[in-house]
Specification:
Low-confidence stretches: none
Structural class: alpha+beta
Strand content: 25-35%
Order of helices and strands: HEHEEHEEEEHEEE
Largest sheet: 7 strands, antiparallel
Oligomer: single chain
Strand order of the largest sheet: 1-2-3-10-9-8-4
Distance between the termini: 52 Å
């Protein structure tokens, strides 16, 4: 009788563990659901990408992107003054535009990606026309943020990818 009782308790605990795991997974999926960053205030998305409020001179801020449980990708475009950039850039390292087989890459962003819906929403394709872009990159805990600055007009483009 004791062995049967222990076996029943073991089965009961296993069933409860499976139920609790399924409930936890369901809660995780409903809490961390897919997010469309174009539907959120652009300032909120700026804070998500840069982990700080926008400097006071940032204007014409546009955002797009998607996230789900496994990854996030955000595209930003905004007008910035040299003083605004000075506040943002200490966290970034300068990098170069790479040219591979007639296509360019800005940090982690290859030119071929610029025709996809999210970068098109915020006119990221404009980076192909910048004569002398300044490109910066920041890596941190599974996130890569790339900044492309057009010094001639103060337009700044940001791309964040988190895995």
């Amino acid at each position: 009788p004791r062995t049967l009782q222990r076996a029943l308790w073991g089965v009961l605990l296993t069933v409860l563990l499976v139920i609790a795991s399924a409930a936890g997974l369901h809660l995780l999926r409903t809490t961390v659901r897919s997010r469309d960053y174009a539907k959120y205030p652009a300032g909120w998305t700026f804070v998500y990408v840069f982990r700080r409020n926008p400097p006071p001179g940032i204007r014409d801020l546009k955002a797009s992107g998607q996230s789900d449980v496994n990854r996030a990708e955000v595209w930003l475009r905004f007008k910035s003054s040299p003083a605004d950039l000075k506040e943002l850039l200490p966290a970034f390292q300068p990098t170069e535009v790479q040219g591979i087989q007639g296509s360019r890459t800005w940090g982690e962003v290859p030119e071929a990606r610029l025709v996809e819906p999210q970068p098109l929403q915020v006119q990221w394709r404009e980076v192909t026309r910048i004569k002398a872009p300044e490109v910066y990159r920041r890596e941190e805990k599974g996130r890569v943020v790339t900044l492309v600055v057009d010094p001639s007009n103060g337009m700044t483009y940001a791309h964040m990818q988190a895995i």
